[in-house]
Design goal:
The complex is a heterotetramer, with 2 copies of chain A (93 residues), 1 copy of chain B (726 residues) and 1 copy of chain C (225 residues). The radius of gyration of chain B is 26 Å and the shape is globular. In chain B, strand 4, helix 8 and strand 5 form a beta-alpha-beta unit. A 7-stranded mixed beta sheet of chain B has the order 8-10-7-11-9-12-13. Helix content of chain B is 35%, strand content 24%. About 1% of the residues of chain B have low confidence. Chain B is built from 26 helices and 28 strands. Chain C has 225 residues and is of the alpha/beta class. Chain C is globular. Chain C has one domain: 3-Layer(aba) Sandwich (Rossmann fold), CATH 3.40.50.880. Classes of the chains: A alpha+beta (93), B alpha+beta (726), C alpha/beta (225). Bound molecules: adenosine-5'-diphosphate and magnesium ion.
């Protein structure tokens, strides 16, 4: 743990999160069932719920722009199905 | 670290056990050694409370290639084919995290089977939940079923059978037992016994993480309120990696590289290495810094006690390291030589060249404690139920009550979540008395079934023990298979309680008696004690998994009526034993009295005669009579069939309810082509089998003369409602 | 006819399809996903299973494997490609077929025999079936809920590119007999040139009377035709 | 979209996101496979990737604290498996 922290503070490493969500016009069977279940469980006022994916990515790279580009590449090449999904990249540290 | 009393207790070891450890070591253990003792000496791994009783079980027979004592049992099914199978419990983990608990249960039992060189060909399970209206039941059911499916479907082995039951005795302690069946070549079975000095000990599979540390001790302690809070690191199943591991192992097994192989199940690296060394009367030395780890800074203690899944330990022949590694590289799996066999008869654990632990192997294995725990016999209940004293009901209403009850409802909600067809050898899916799996590329097939009868066992452990073996035997016979051998999973409460221990001892006596009489030996099994919470123990629930052989599979036999106007015959005598019946339970909530007795002689004769009829191709459909009695079994024969039945009023009528709902044992219903009736009757008479001609099949309706007349499709609907509404 | 079955780590219907192909007298080869060259084939099959555990999205990772480029080249030069179940999912992930397969509407794995209607029998894959013939096939999947955009759906309909649709015993296509929530009860589709077929049901499970039925046989004999 | 925005601006509705991640020592088979694949695809410098879930939840409630409590209840009751997962609630608007 301590060791890892040290590395981070030296900023040889960057941490990102990526959120992948289904495009708005794509059916979300999972979200729908979750929503129905919550309503059946008596949770009222729930208007809508949609489910997506979340990735936490550590990358050995100190340049933010380079790192971001790499993350974007990962998303386009693998993590995201661009036909049905949108994504957003956030830097954590 | 100082080994305090508290630390010892936390490791689940009793004071005198700890004293014993010090004596065996000649000194005080360090923490790592203490952990290892706790892993090896707990109930789950050492069988300390059960061993003396298990010894009574019959384990031999000419069909047996390997009995208990290995990762799984092995039986001979002719030619060069062998069947490898075992059942195991994953009760406590599944209660804490139903999806992962059930999934890793399936993963674990699969490893036991492919470790022995067998390709798994079928999965079964026996799952018991609390009362349906208990607040936890629904989510446990959902989680367990999808966990079992999640693992089996992904790895691509059909889940073809099982049982799903509800009873409030499991409210706080569900049962999840998984059984795996594999096929191997008779001369290519692999064992765990190490041989030879200085042989490479190889670690393969997933990396080791901090998951499930002390899982085996958890399975060896009762639950209390805190267990849910404790949240031990739950193991997450990775069926994809298991699939790779299975293919890689089976590939490596094609040549002669392996001396011995053992999966890392309960107590992980500890029990696998100790077991291999102890069976081979050798020592083993491990360099723990070489163990592939998932997390940073893992300690030897964590490595030795981790229960990370999807890992194996292999002892290799000299010079085979490179070729073996190639195979595991191909499958993207870790392959690391982490130690060697020695002549020290010790388990020696090094970490960065420093000896961290040193324990004589026998201290962990043969010198582990064995207890002759106190037990008492169950006093038989004298209660007889007199139907005259009960509120009157109509047969139709009583029947509907049973057919629509959770325990008797159609289980397709469950089984549709399992891939039953993958591998394309499933000739009969679950839903029948037994599933039928064809041996790939051959004409022969095996039949498999798992069964339990907790209510019977609770009321009379001895009779109950006999009864489940017989019921399981009957299920295989009903699909035309010759029963060969069983595996058993003995789920019981706290063995330190002498009544519970009595239930255990008596059930084993019952199992033994039946197995011996039927030449139906036990080749593998598992014991799960401490099923209970706060001193409330579950009903004794031994689960029997049986395997039978169908020499030539032409047309699978099942219980669905096939034709109009065929004769319906009941084999075996109907006396009308009504105590412990589901008629009384579902309609009157009466649980008293003794279960129906077992007559082993009749059992055997009835079964063998039926088998003869099936082999002579005289049977259109057949079904054993179990819970719910004759009438329930008849209804089941009309489901998924276009035909119903017309049943005569019973001739020697005692009482209609006793006749139709009684649960007398050793009975089957068969459908016979009308023209074959004389032939069949002759065989049964020659064999001195008691039988009754009770009616004939007809279109659409299920009828009992003067009593009942319902459309079968309405019955089917009633039977299908519960799960979909739950 | 020469066929190749692509095997990914986690494929588990590879043996099943191989058995069916050999039974139907195809000259079949298994091709490991790390290979970079495909043997000469008239038919490439991507089998069912859980390639890479289906952990990211079903079919996603297999869609990036080395061999897939070869499959794409073959497809472009007109080779016949059949994707079954996970194979269908992989074909949509690679873009060889359009649309995608979402989770089943009940969020559960479904294994059962269902009825499907042959909606187009004018193809290399279906010519031995009668138009509108009703088949009883086994499905076994978590993600069989076909989804695509309106434009593509219109294209599928206008150009008769829907191969199979879920229906009831009598052939009526309705919601009740839609096992997984699939758009328009779609169970299988062609690409525009009809040399690629992706389908969720398993024809290879239906070639042996003792095990099930023979409703899958004609798919293979169509290919041989 | 326009309509929804209107509603939001009237603040009868609040929007949250919830991120659910596996606890630190829990095996993440999905992340593992994704990571291997990315590395095989030639994306270097990737140190680690873990996969989690992401929910977007709209709730008809104007009081932030009440809404947050409701979301928390949903998480504990259904969305999160507390035995192996951690979660974080964020307000979006
Ligand atoms: N109830 C039983 N009947 C017969 N054999 C049993 C029983 N319980 C356990 N065994 C045998 O004892 C051995 C050890 O069992 P177990 O510890 O469950 O194996 P594993 O290490 O694979 O988990 C196995 O060979 C098993 O078949
Ligand atoms: Mg084992």
């Amino acid at each position: 743990m301590a060791k890892q922290f040290q590395l981070n503070s030296k900023k040889n490493k960057l941490k990102f999160s990526v959120t992948v969500t289904l495009k708005e016009d794509v059916l979300d069977p999972q979200g729908k069932v979750v929503q129905n279940t919550l309503v059946n469980m008596g949770i009222n006022n729930l208007k809508s719920i949609r489910q997506g994916k979340h990735f936490e990515i550590d990358i050995n790279e100190k340049e933010l722009t380079v790192a971001k580009k790499k993350i974007d590449e990962m998303c386009r090449k693998l993590l995201v199905n661009l036909i049905i999904e949108d994504y957003k990249i956030n830097i954590i540290k | 670290m100082k080994i305090t009393d508290q630390l010892v207790e936390k490791h689940g070891l009793k004071k005198d056990e700890f004293e014993n450890i010090k004596k065996l070591l000649g000194r005080e253990p360090n923490l790592l050694e203490l952990g290892i003792f706790s892993a090896m000496w707990n109930e789950h791994c050492s069988y300390k409370s059960s061993r003396l009783h298990l010894k009574k079980l019959p384990i031999a027979g000419e069909q047996v290639i390997q009995g208990p004592g290995e990762n799984a049992g092995v039986i001979d099914i002719g030619d060069d084919d062998a069947i490898v199978f075992k059942i195991e419990s994953h009760n406590h983990p599944s209660y804490i995290e139903p999806y992962q608990g059930a999934a890793t249960g399936v993963g674990g039992i699969l490893r036991d089977v492919f470790t022995m060189g067998a390709r798994p060909i079928a999965l079964l399970n026996s799952i018991h939940f609390g009362a349906p209206d208990h607040p936890k039941t629904k989510s446990l059911l959902n989680g367990v079923v999808s966990g079992i499916g999640g693992y089996g479907n992904c790895i691509g082995i059909p889940t073809v059978g099982g049982e799903t039951k509800f009873n409030e005795t499991y409210n706080e302690n569900i049962l999840v037992n998984a059984m795996a069946v594999g096929h191997a070549k008779k001369n290519k079975i692999f064992y765990s016994k190490a041989k030879g000095l200085n042989k490479s000990v190889v670690y393969v599979g997933s990396k080791t993480g901090r998951d499930g540390i002390h899982g085996a001790s958890m399975a060896s302690a009762e639950f209390d309120e805190e267990s849910e809070e404790k949240k031990p690191t739950v193991q997450v199943g990775d069926p994809f990696t298991e699939k790779l591991l299975m293919e890689a192992c089976l590939e490596l097994m094609k040549d002669n590289s392996i001396i011995s192989i053992q999966d890392m199940g309960a107590a992980g690296l500890t029990s696998s290495s100790v077991e291999m060394a102890s069976k081979g009367s050798l020592g083993i030395e491990l360099d723990l810094e070489k163990v592939p780890c998932r997390e940073e800074n893992m300690t030897p203690y964590e490595m030795m006690l981790s229960e990370s899944q999807e890992r194996m330990l292999i002892i290799l022949e000299d010079g085979k390291e490179n070729s073996a590694k190639k195979i595991f590289d191909k499958w993207d799996l870790d392959f690391v030589i982490i130690g060697k066999t020695t002549n020290t008869n010790k388990l020696i654990l090094k970490f960065n060249n420093k000896i961290e632990g040193e324990i004589p192997i026998e201290a962990l294995a043969s010198k582990a404690p064995v207890y002759d725990r106190k037990w008492i016999k169950k006093k038989p209940s004298k209660i007889k139920v007199d139907l005259k004293n009960l509120k009157k009901i109509k047969i139709e209403d009583a029947l509907i009550k049973i057919l629509s009850s959770p325990n008797h409802s159609n289980k397709s909600w469950v089984t549709n979540q399992y891939d039953q067809m993958v591998m394309c050898d499933t000739a009969q899916k679950s839903g029948s008395d037994a599933a039928i799996i064809r041996i790939h590329n051959k004409d022969k097939a095996i039949a498999v079934s798992v069964d339990s009868s907790a209510n019977y066992c609770k009321s009379s452990p001895l009779t109950g023990g006999k009864q489940i073996v017989c019921e399981n035997w009957r299920n295989l016979i009903a699909v035309g298979a010759k029963p060969l051998a069983i595996t058993n999973c003995l789920n019981f409460g706290n063995p330190e309680n002498k009544e519970i221990m009595g239930e255990f001892a008596e059930c084993i006596n019952g199992i033994k008696e039946a197995c011996e009489f039927l030449n139906y030996p036990v080749v593998s099994g598992n014991v799960s004690f401490y099923n209970g919470t706060n001193n409330k123990n579950i009903y004794p629930t031994p689960v029997i998994g049986g395997v039978g052989l169908i020499q030539k599979l032409t047309k699978p036999i099942n219980h669905y009526f096939k034709k109009e106007n065929s004769s319906i015959i009941v084999i075996g005598k109907t006396i009308g034993h009504i105590e412990q019946s589901c008629f009384l339970k579902e309609n009157y909530s009466i649980n008293e009295g003794l279960p129906p007795e077992i007559n082993l002689l009749n059992e055997k004769n009835n079964g063998e005669s039926l088998l003869k009829l099936i082999e002579k191709n005289l049977v259109l459909s057949s079904h054993d009579i179990s819970n719910g009695g004759l009438i329930t079994a008849l209804c089941e024969m009309t489901f998924s069939s276009n035909f119903g039945a017309k049943i005569y009023k019973p001739k020697k009528l005692t009482n209609m309810f006793k006749y139709f709902f009684g649960e007398d044992q050793g009975r089957y219903i068969i459908e016979i082509e009308a023209e074959n009736l004389p032939k069949v009757e002759k065989i049964l008479k020659d064999d001195k089998i008691y039988y009754e001609n009770i009616g004939f099949t007809q279109k659409e309706k299920f009828e009992i003369e003067g009593e009942l007349n319902i459309l079968t499709k309405d019955l089917f609907k009633i039977n299908n409602e519960w799960y979909n509404k739950y | 006819m020469r066929s190749s079955v692509i095997v990914f780590p986690g494929s588990n219907c590879d043996r099943d399809i191989a058995v069916a192909l050999e039974k139907m007298q195809f000259k079949n080869q298994m091709v490991w996903h790390k290979e970079t060259k495909l043997p000469k084939s008239d038919l490439i099959v991507i089998p069912g299973g859980f390639s890479y555990g289906d952990y990211l999205r079903s079919g996603a990772i297999a869609g990036k494997s080395l061999i897939i480029n070869e499959v794409k080249n073959a497809a472009n030069s007109g080779c016949l490609i059949l994707g079954i179940c996970n194979g269908f999912q992989i074909l949509t992930e690679t873009g060889l077929l359009r649309g995608t397969l979402l989770r089943n509407k009940n969020l559960k794995f479904i294994n059962k025999d269902v009825y499907v209607k042959v909606t187009n029998n004018n193809s290399k894959f279906t010519n031995k079936y009668k138009k509108d013939q009703i088949l009883n096939l086994n499905i076994a999947h978590n993600e069989g809920n076909y989804f695509t955009d309106q434009k593509h759906l219109d294209e599928l309909k206008n150009n008769n590119l829907i191969a199979f649709r879920y229906c009831d015993e009598k052939g009526s296509i309705n919601d009740f007999y839609n096992p997984n929530g699939s758009l328009e009860n779609i169970a299988g589709i062609f690409n525009s040139k009809k040399n690629i077929l992706g389908m969720m049901p398993h024809p290879e499970r239906m070639v042996d009377e003792i095990i099930s039925n023979k409703d899958g046989v004609n798919l293979f004999s169509s290919l041989l035709n």
